[in-house]
Amino acid sequence: MDLLFSQFLTLPDTNVTLTIEDQVQMDELRQAPGFERQCPSLLGYTRSRIVKEGQWKHSIGILGARLAAALKGVCAHEYAHAWLKENLAPDRVIDRDTIEGFCELLAYKLCESLNLTRELQSIRRNGYSRGQIDLFIEAEQSYGLPTIVEWMKHGVDERLNRDDLDRIRRTQEKEARPARPTVLEIPPAPAPTPVPEILTLVGISGTRSNRLALINDRAFAEMETGRVRVGGSNVAIQCLQIRAGSALIQVVGSDLPQELRLKVPPADGTPSRSPAGSPSQEQEPNGEHSPIRD
Ligand SMILES: [Zn+2]
Predict the structure, then answer these.
(1) CA 281 – ligand 1 centroid, Å
(2) Per-block average pLDDT, block size 10, for the chain (294 residues)?
(3) Ligand 1 center from residue 112 Cα (angstroms)
(4) Who contacts 130 (Cβ-Cβ below 8 Å, separation ≥6)?
(5) Spacing, Cα 11 to ligand 1 middle (Å)
């Protein structure tokens, strides 16, 4: 799970207690006073609390005695709840169905990577998120997971908009956000999701006529200009052209375009051609612009 998502988000790890519960324990827990029902799933729960100065502890319970395949999706869902607790600012308001949709998306991505087709169907049918999961799957295919993660953290809307999914790219610029008040009960801002230290083409998505390039933490259409996070700071870039396995971009204020290549070539193996004079010819194909990962 960490391997699958580590490029986009860091799931809580050492601060999670994971227990397998039986049905009786689950039922007792739900009826116990003070049990905060965060999640409509009957198959798992997450309880999160701050132990000291912004450090979270999560208790995750999973209903056992089920097929291993079914447990994996529930695990991913509950870990996603824990991640949200740690990573959403207190002033980020998100509709409850949308929270569930995001958690189901991570479950869906995990099951997809493990080829668990029955689980994929059950995620789409279970109704936890009242349809938001379908929008999340569509958004993931069109805009990529980094855009979704960014929207969860800084989006301007409370839920994904069925009629205008493109609004997922509307986020509050971090710089424009008011400083958070220093109140003891509010944990300090969590460490931001790691982004590459250099400009990196993370992926290309969308249809041939409407491609999007995922560069560091943001998706770009052709000729679109925007800021991306690079290491600890921001860089404004314009995406000039999106090709089969690369994107031609230009840092705003610089004269030279540069070509960012995907680390892994596209499945159809189409080689991307560089225009004469493109600086890409001086670069190792898989070298300088590859993401740095453990
Ligand atoms: Zn849930």
Answers:
(1) 48
(2) 81 89 82 65 82 86 82 92 92 93 96 94 90 96 94 95 93 58 51 76 81 86 87 88 92 90 62 44 40 38
(3) 19
(4) 97, 100
(5) 15
